[in-house]
Amino acid sequence: MSQVSKLSAQQTASILNFIGGEFVAAASGKTFENRSPVDARLLGLVSEAGEAEVDRAVKTARAALAGPWGALEMAERTELLYAVANEINRRFDEFLEAEVADTGKPASLARHIDIPRGAANFKIFADVVKNVPSEFFQMATPDKKGAINYAIRVPKGVIAVIAPWNLPLLLMTWKVGPALACGNTVVVKPSEETPATATLLGEVMNAVGVPKGVYNVVHGFGPGSAGELLTRHPGIDAVTFTGETRTGAAIMKAVADRVRPVSFELGGKNAGVVFADCDFDAAVEGMGRAVFANCGQVCLGTERVYVERPIFDKFVAALKAKAESLKPGRPEDANTGLGPLISAEHRNKVLSYYGKARDEGATVVTGGGIPKMESALANGCWIEPTIWTGLPEESAVVREEIFGPCCHVRPFDTEDEAVRLANATQYGLATTIWTTNLARAHRVAAKIEVGICWVNCWFLRDLRTPFGGSKQSGIGREGGVHSLEFYTELRNVCVKL
Ligand code: NAD
Ligand code: 6OD
User: Does 171 contact ligand 2 (Cβ within 6 A)?
Assistant: First the structure.
């Protein structure tokens, strides 16, 4: 039976840590509940790794580096990664079921984005590492015999991967894929909210013959739990993390004494900029996705929308219609347009911003509360998609990341004003611009302080391009060869002839 699909009748952990190729319960016997955000039903009990399990996972990963994994040729390693991708695709429905159960997101979304990208992340980085050019220089020397000087890439070592809950498999494999392709081993700490697919991936690793200890998973929380234990462990060589900016700050402190490198994909308060010359229907459709997809729980999503004044009223009305067309419901229902938020705690946070918006005098264009659901779903973490206008830019609702299906819409009059408003944030992750004036698109894209600027699209990207955030939205870039900067060390070799 799969490790993740059934809740144990004995109420022992049904989701276990994965260490050295084995599924193991924590020696402490500690577990925590994994509940569905759709109806609060208990999905399983998760074994919470303690110091002993984290230590074992890191040491096992170290041993695998020196052992069978380190001994593989690159071609053998990449073959295994292609096999991992194929096996995820073969077990597509199991991954889909597990991801949808943990997140409550519409199955159609996970079917088109989360699971295919989970598999693709292994294939793309296997392709990348096979095609990296290396530097090579011939040098003159005083004795006229010369030297050759070149750089080789070696794995960084044991990588700690700390993942969030919004796109669990996609974002975890976005880091595990390149880490393994470069010859590292990993210890993954999935979010406590979404432990299933990382665990299922352990079965895949075993099935295709990835050596034991290469991929390890420890479950638990952040502070005082598996997350902090892992980032503080002296045996890790680097930390790659996706999550909130303040968690990134805590992880930086945890690794500071040992001066370990970090790669951070952090929070955002992304702007959408809609010019009057845009393709109106495409802009409404695109901004609708950028604001409401995954119930607003996408780091690249838009919570600040700036619309050129001549089309402001028409745009707000069209976005309102879009929001109101999204029906909340069960993930497997084809008519479901909106899933729940991830947890009751997160819903309380989002609702607190809904309250602040009202208190600060926002015009609530639509939403602002909790939808009425059928009784079986009444305990789920449902929330209404919400649009506000009329708030000052200093408002917490306009400045802080909410991570819910909501946005504030404000008019602008000039291109310069739009750029200034978009840049007025401590974050710098993503922007989406809508215009048919290509010269303007290039001009504005160059001025907006973000890691990625979309023009007339959103969430579209060739995975070989750099991905990451500016300002407080991150440190470093991953994607294609850019991932190699983090997951390998360059070693300079100079040979006197
Ligand atoms: P989070 O920071 O609360 O948690 C992320 C992970 O870090 C979890 O596994 C958590 O257990 C762990 N963690 C928490 N505290 C820790 C600590 N002190 N030490 C070690 N690990 C710790 O983030 P989240 O709520 O899971 O995800 C939502 C956030 O992630 C949002 O801010 C969103 O913008 C951001 N995000 C960013 C990107 C990006 O690419 N920039 C992508 C997805 C999500
Ligand atoms: O597409 C990706 O690779 C990526 N890292 C997406 C991040 C989405 C944030 O929620």
Answer: yes
Residue among 454, 448, 478, 484 nearest 466 (CA): 478
Tell me the average confidence (pLDDT) per consecutive run of 10 residues in the chain, 497 residues long: 50 85 97 97 96 98 96 97 98 98 98 98 97 93 98 97 98 98 98 98 98 98 98 98 98 97 98 98 98 98 98 98 98 97 98 98 98 97 98 98 98 98 98 98 98 98 97 97 97 97
| Alpha-carbon 202 to chain mean position | 19
Q: How far is CA 261 from the centre of its chain?
A: 19
Residue 239 CB–ligand 1 contact under 6 Å? no
90: left (phi over 0), alpha (psi -120 to 50) or beta: alpha
Question: Which residue among the candidates 278, 299, 406, 453 is catalytic per the annotation?
Answer: 299
Q: Give how far Cα 102 sits from Cα of 39, 67, 95, 193, 225, Å.
A: 11, 35, 11, 7, 20
Would you call 449 a catalytic residue per the annotation? no
Q: Say if ligand 1 is within 6 A of residue 429 CB.
A: yes
Q: Which atom of ligand 2 is nearest to the CA of 459?
A: 1
Spatial separation of the C-alpha atoms in residues 200 and 87, rounded to whole Å:
11
What is the best residue among 113, 173, 242, 463 to mutate for testing ligand 2's pocket, by most ligand atoms within 8 Å of CB? Answer: 242
| Rounded CA separation 88/200 (Å) | 9
Topology of the domain covering 270-462: Aldehyde Dehydrogenase; Chain A, domain 2 (3.40.309)
Cβ of 210 below 6 Å from ligand 2:
no
* Residue 265 annotated in active site: yes
Residue 265 CA: nearest ligand 2 atom is 5
Q: Say which CATH topology domain 3-266+473-496 has.
A: Aldehyde Dehydrogenase; Chain A, domain 1 (3.40.605)
Cα four-point dihedral sign 355, 36, 216, 299: negative
From 327, 302, 323, select the one nearest 366 (Cα to Cα): 323
pLDDT tens-digit readout, 444-470: 999 999 999 999 999 999 999 999 999
Atom of ligand 1 nearest to the CA of 429: 41
Domain extents in the chain? 3-266+473-496, 270-462
